[in-house]
Write a structure and sequence with these properties.
This protein is mainly alpha-helical and 344 residues long. It has 14 helices and four strands.
Length: 344
């Protein structure tokens, strides 16, 4: 009988009757096995170290790539050479999902994911703050400034509340990034929401084969994971052509990634209104055209599919969030993903 380790170099012959081993032989066997296990672990760690060392190469490739096709060619080459394993490794195969099945598997309902009704609590609270602060500023300016200057200043400041109300009632999606950014200045939880949200977009984009170009998490108005201009993304829609089923499936899971990650970590997603609007835009461009019921099923399936991906890679999401918080470049982020393993 043989005890075979992960490497063929470690094969230990044993007698047919193990009880016949002397104490000296047993001690030697134990030491040999420990040495073998340590060497195998070191060999297994080498690819991870190589992938982490590839960060500068990834950064340079993404900076010099003029299109998504060039970035995909680079990542495909890294995978074919064996240096990368996780690029485009997640499969996205659509199947019909009911609301009850989604809740049963994920323990998250549509309200928690933000796909049932839009939560306007933050919007209403912000409007009350804007209204109160502009009212006070208008009164103070009228009291301390010269008559004519105070007159124009008070009306100008008071008009800010009207502008905010107009935007909030007609296009509230324009205000959510600003509200989220302001909240992140004062709330540690809001900051972590941004990091977790964008880390999930970055991770899932790489795993489904959509190359990430860079990211921004410090500027409230431009917080995003950015993809290449010639690829439809969650944040910019630069192609007027229709989308295939496979493209829609990939874009759906990437779009839902931030909301699902927020729901897993905080039990309630708050930063997905813009993602949902962009997702709807992708679904409307699919050929054949999706009806309303099909769009709802696609959204539920995407939530379940990306939930599975994120749960299997939750430790990587958390590590990526730490990278984004400390400002690590996108090359480091990709290297981290490639050096990581699924949690289960």
């Amino acid at each position: 009988q043989d005890i075979k380790m992960n490497s063929p170099a470690f094969v230990l012959p044993l007698p047919s009757n193990p009880a016949a081993l002397s104490s000296h032989s047993k001690l030697g066997l134990i030491r040999h096995a420990h040495l073998s296990t340590r060497l195998v672990a070191q060999r297994a760690a080498r690819p991870c170290a190589l992938r982490m060392s590839a960060a500068p190469q990834v950064k340079q490739a993404l900076e010099t790539a003029n299109s998504a096709a060039e970035a995909v060619k680079f990542f495909d080459g890294m995978k074919e050479s064996g240096e990368f394993k996780r690029w485009n490794s997640a499969r996205t195969l659509f199947r019909r999902i009911s609301q009850s099945e989604l809740k049963l598997i994920t323990k998250l309902d549509g309200q928690a994911l933000g796909i049932v009704a839009e939560d306007t609590t933050d919007l209403r609270t912000t409007f009350a703050v804007v209204l109160g602060s502009t009212t006070v500023l208008a009164i103070v300016s009228a009291a301390v400034l010269p008559p004519q200057a105070g007159y124009f200043a008070s009306y100008g400041i008071g008009g800010l509340a009207i502008v905010f109300l107009g935007i909030g009632s007609s296009a509230p999606g324009l205000l959510y990034p600003l509200i989220s950014g302001v909240q992140s200045l004062f709330s540690p939880e809001a900051k972590q929401r941004v990091y977790i949200h964008e880390a999930a977009h970055l991770l899932v984009g790489h795993l489904v084969g959509i190359p990430v170009r860079d990211y921004e998490v410090k500027n409230p108005m431009t917080t995003a994971v950015r993809f290449f201009d010639d690829v439809p993304t969650m944040h910019r829609d630069l192609q007027a052509s229709s989308l295939t089923r496979a493209e829609v499936d990939k874009l759906s899971v990437v779009s839902m990634a931030g909301m699902v990650a927020e729901a897993i970590e905080f039990k309630q997603a708050k930063g997905g209104q813009q993602d949902l609007r962009q997702l709807q835009g992708f679904l409307l461009r699919m050929k054949p055209t999706m009806v309303s019921k099909d769009q709802e099923e696609q959204t539920r399936w995407a939530a379940l599919a990306v939930y599975t991906i994120i749960k299997q890679n939750w430790s990587t999401v958390k590590a990526l969030a730490g990278y984004l918080e400390t400002g690590r470049d996108v090359g480091d982020c990709i290297a981290l993903i490639e050096s990581s393993q699924e949690d289960y």
